[in-house]
Design goal:
elongated; single chain
């Protein structure tokens, strides 16, 4: 589904299902959260669970998935002692989302990967926020 397709569907009052919160679902499934940085650091040690969450959301009908990056900016990670790892955490989260998609096969979700030739990500605003990832 392209952006144009998505926009046309929304303008026609169609429903496009977005996944649920990955961090909240990690927590619900018993993954320990960091007191200062919540679910950001949990990505590093729970990749398989994160991929399973993405697969489950897609199986439930989600057409758009989001990576577990809500709590993984340098600003959020610094108090927890992870200020040197936001890029690693974000890359890991994005790759988990992509692997969850691949498991379902091509064509299941919108793909935004083409927007960056040197950073495989799911969303095109990388340049706007990249300074907080470093």
């Amino acid at each position: 589904m392209s952006y144009a397709d998505m926009e046309a569907r929304l303008q026609a009052s169609d429903v496009i299902i977005l996944d649920g919160g990955t961090g909240s679902e990690l927590e619900r499934r018993g993954v320990p959260m960091n007191a200062e940085a919540w679910c950001g650091p949990a990505t590093l040690d729970n990749v398989e669970e994160l991929e399973a969450i993405h697969r489950d959301y897609i199986s439930a009908g989600a057409k758009i998935i989001t990576a577990n990056t809500y709590a993984s900016s340098r600003l959020m990670l610094e108090p927890a002692g992870y200020s040197d790892r936001p890029e690693e955490i974000n890359r890991t989260a994005v790759h988990a989302a992509l692997r969850g998609q691949i498991w379902h096969g091509p064509g299941q979700l919108q793909k935004w990967q083409r927007h960056s030739r040197n950073w495989p990500c799911c969303w095109p605003m990388r340049d706007a926020v990249s300074s907080s990832w470093r």
